[in-house]
Amino acid sequence: MLRKSIVIILLISLFVTGCTGAGVTPVQKSEPTVTLIPSATNTFTPPPTATNIQPSTPTPISNAVYYVIVLDASEKMKEPFAGGTKWDAARGAAEAIVKGLEPGAKYSLVVIGGSSPTEGLDPCNEPSVALSTFSSQKKIGGQIAQLQPAGVGSIQAAYALAQKQLEGLSRYAIGALIFITSSSDTCDRRDEWADLEKQFDFNADAGIDFYSEIVALDETVNAAVQSLAIRAGNISGNINFQFPQNDEMLREANNAVLANLADYVNTTVATRPTESPLVSSFTLTPRTVTPTYTPSITPTPSLTYTPTITLTPSVTPTETITTTPSITNTPVTPTITSTWTPSATPSVTFTASPPFVRLLSVNYLSRGVGCQIDVRVQVTGSPANGNFHVRNAGMDAEGIASPPMTLQVGSDWISSFNINYLLTLPGDEEQYYMHEIWFEYNGVESNRLKELICPGLFIPQ
Fold first, then answer.
1. Measured between alpha carbons, how far is 253 from 331 in angstroms, rounded to an integer?
2. Single pTM value for the model
3. How far is CA 112 from CA 71, 214, 292, in A?
């Protein structure tokens, strides 16, 4: 306990110099009463110790993994395979692979065919269907079990739709594509595997790289497709092909797919920085602080004293002050200031590379007359400002020009730049069902995508 004693001695003295006749009536000195504030002992309370931040439960790795399953359920899957059909083998492979993957991952299902075709429909323009977008493993398994082979579709269009789903994921997600099909084409007018190879080339040029496992069923060796697989492996190390020709090879292919996917996911996780919340384990140590007290002293005298002082000066001083100004001449030395003017800085003008636009594919968003389409484009150099042109046989050479739009550098669907950029195929009579589109910018035309027909429309042969 801290105690202080304060003694105050009050002395009153009066000294008068140069004065006479001063009379002073002294009074008795008093002893003041001193009050110390605060009278209680001051207690110092240090700041509380910081509370440790408890780490949150890390998110399971499987929650960041996304798989897109592309399953060919077109009419061609009724072809024979290993004593059954290609569809039996493909559906069994899809079910086995999905069950072997992480239960907590997210799954999408894209289907080629799976429904009765419209009579006379061009299979090259039949859109693939996304039955589910990143749902549970159980839901995807149930949808696969209910599918039956029917209709037609396009391998390249299905791959492009699956790729679009993967491109929409965040940068923290781990995505992979699993494609199960036959090595034969559904589209008779196109070499779909060659179109798919062009997609691989384009992805490589655009810096798009995601993991793909492609299972192509066929009892006989398709040399052209296997050659494509070799070239695809040279394009990207993340594209793997499996070519099972019987049940045993199919089981081996399923196991290889699962092993490759597990290795890809684990390798990707290991090469990424830890993104879990950091644990704070430090404890704050309070500083030692010496409190400063400022007591308040209230003197309370017990006696009242009133001194009487009379001052009578004997001399009244008179003082005359004379001021004599002093003039000092201070020479001024001129100062010369030099001003430096820097030489002009040469300006450098950077001229952006001119844009180059390439149309890659279309995605049909609706069916029938006036269907809407999304267009996948590749833009290099600099952004391209211009207009799309849509033309059918009933229009002049320029067709119908869209409102002005800007296509950004890179590879993407035009809807990602602006949802209003979607195009419409307006032909409402049989002779006008077929369309072509191109993009015109800076007086230059892109390549043209031709023979575009809205799904569900029929052109007599």
1. 103
2. 0.51
3. 6, 14, 83
The token pair that represents 452 in the structure block: 């575009």
Residue 415 predicted with pLDDT over 50? yes
- φ, ψ of residue 286 in degrees (nearest 5): -70, 145
Distances (CA, A) of 376 to 158, 170, 373: 13, 20, 10
Q: Distances in Å between the alpha carbon of 122 and those of 431, 433, 448?
A: 15, 12, 19
Residue spans of the domains in the chain: they are 1-38+295-313, 62-270, 356-452
Q: How many CA atoms lie within 13 A of 235 on its CB side?
A: 25
For residue 304, what pLDDT band results from cuts at 50, 70 and 90? very low
Nearest-angstrom CA–CA distance, 378 and 59: 36
Strands 211-217 and 174-182 come out as parallel
Report residue 298's pLDDT band, with 50, 70 and 90 as the boundaries: very low
CATH code for the structural domain at 62-270: 3.40.50.410
User: pLDDT by residue (tens digit) across 157-204?
Assistant: 889 888 888 888 887 889 999 999 998 766 666 787 888 888 888 888
SS3 318: coil
Q: For residues 152 and 45, give the distance between their C-alpha atoms in angstroms, rounded to a whole number.
A: 80
Cis omega (within 30 of 0) for bond into 354: no
CATH topology (fold) of 356-452: Immunoglobulin-like (2.60.40)
Residue 354 dihedral angles phi and psi, to the nearest 5°: -65, 150
Q: How many CB atoms neighbour CB 24 within 10 A?
A: 13
- Confidence class for position 17, pLDDT limits 50, 70, 90: very low
